[in-house]
Amino acid sequence: MSAAARPSRLPSGAAGAVVVLLALVALGGCAQGRSTTVAALRDKAGRLPGQALLMRTAAQNRHDWRTVYALTADPAADYGASAREWIASNDQTRGLRVLETRVIGSGKGKGDALVRVIFTTWTTAPGGTRYAVSVRPPGEWMTLAKVGGLWKLVVDV
């Protein structure tokens, strides 16, 4: 039987109107839930996790160590030691793209965000050897945590 000759399986009349109405209500709820979810993802500065990561990376590229430190969750060392390490490594990141963001945990302002990214970073190893690290699709997950209401990068030590 051809597609044109098949009988419709959709309800007609009042039953059809109810199905359409329920579908519209469900879609409206999803759209509303989605915008509420995005709003809940924003930190107190209005940034989404990926935006905070992009901001930290831009600060690192311009050697703005105070901003890098401020956007690092629980730095392992004090500001002076961290800045000396960042100066020595001289990381420069290009082509950072946020591909996806997922939030782990529940409730407004709770949990961490996983941000999947691609990028290329040039860095200097202890001893002075400079090399590049490229992360291509499907990307690498970076973790951000809300600290004091702001998204900050969690750095593995």
Explain what the structure shows.
The protein has helices spanning 13-41, 49-61, 65-70, 79-89, and strands at residues 72-73, 92-104, 112-124, 130-147, 150-154. It is of the alpha+beta class and 157 residues long. The protein has one domain (42-154): Roll (Nuclear Transport Factor 2, Chain: A). The chain has a 5-stranded mixed β-sheet with strand order 1-5-4-3-2. The protein starts with 12 loop residues before the first helix and ends with a strand. The model is unreliable at 1-36 (pLDDT under 50).
Question: How are the SSEs placed, and which strands pair?
Answer:
Blueprint (H helix, E strand, L loop, with lengths): L12 H29 L7 H13 L3 H6 L1 E2 L5 H11 L2 E13 L7 E13 L5 E18 L2 E5 L3
Parallel strand pairs: 1-5
Antiparallel strand pairs: 2-3, 3-4, 4-5
pLDDT under 50 segments (min length 5)? 1-36
| Fraction of residues in β-strands | 25-35%
The secondary structure category is alpha+beta
Tally of helical runs: 4
Mean pLDDT: 79
Number of strands: 5
Summarize the structure.
Helices cover 38% and strands 32% of the residues. With 157 residues, it is of the alpha+beta class. A hairpin with a 2-residue loop joins strand 4 and strand 5.
Keywords:
Nuclear Transport Factor 2, Chain: A; 5 strands; disordered N terminus; single chain; 4 helices; alpha+beta; 157 residues; globular
